[in-house]
């Protein structure tokens, strides 16, 4: 599989660094942003295969990032990492992924694999 570049966005610096380290150890390239402004700047100046939003971002901020990316015409998958608390809301993201490292990696692999398939195969329902 080609190198997959992920923009990881979160407000908690410990979680952000830990999650990025987990992604790198699984073979992904991870760029970190700790504010909405930084995430938007990195997105505008980068070429990302996936955007991963942390549950540490308030729902309004997650939705604002998603709206900005979609209004730019990008179809890059945007996922959010779930919280262990029951009050978590997914917002406008495409998919919610587990916060447990081993599950997160498995779910990411499935998401990235489907996103990198030729569109004709993905839309034909071969991998749903």
Question: Please, could you describe this protein's structure?
Answer:
The protein is α/β, with parallel strands linked by helices. The protein has five helices and five strands. The protein has helices at residues 13-25, 36-45, 59-71, 101-115, 119-123, and strands spanning 5-9, 29-33, 50-53, 78-81, 95-97. The protein has a five-stranded parallel β-sheet with strand order 2-1-3-4-5, with helices on both faces. Strand 3, helix 3 and strand 4 (78-81) form a beta-alpha-beta unit. Helix 2 packs parallel to helix 3. The protein is globular. Residues 117-128 have low confidence and may be disordered.
Q: Tags for this entry?
A:
128 residues; alpha/beta; 5-stranded parallel β-sheet; 5 strands; globular; disordered C terminus
């Amino acid at each position: 599989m080609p190198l997959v570049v992920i923009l990881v966005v979160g407000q908690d610096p410990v979680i952000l660094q830990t999650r990025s380290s987990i992604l790198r150890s699984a073979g992904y390239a991870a760029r970190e942003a700790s504010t909405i402004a930084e995430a938007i700047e990195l997105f505008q100046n980068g070429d990302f295969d996936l955007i991963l939003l942390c549950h540490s971002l308030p729902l309004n901020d997650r939705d604002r990032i998603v709206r900005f990316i979609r209004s730019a015409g990008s179809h890059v998958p945007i996922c959010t990492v779930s919280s262990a608390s029951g009050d978590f809301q997914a917002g406008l993201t495409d998919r919610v992924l587990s916060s447990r490292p081993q599950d997160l990696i498995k779910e990411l692999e499935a998401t990235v694999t489907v996103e990198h398939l030729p569109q004709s195969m993905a839309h034909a329902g071969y991998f749903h």
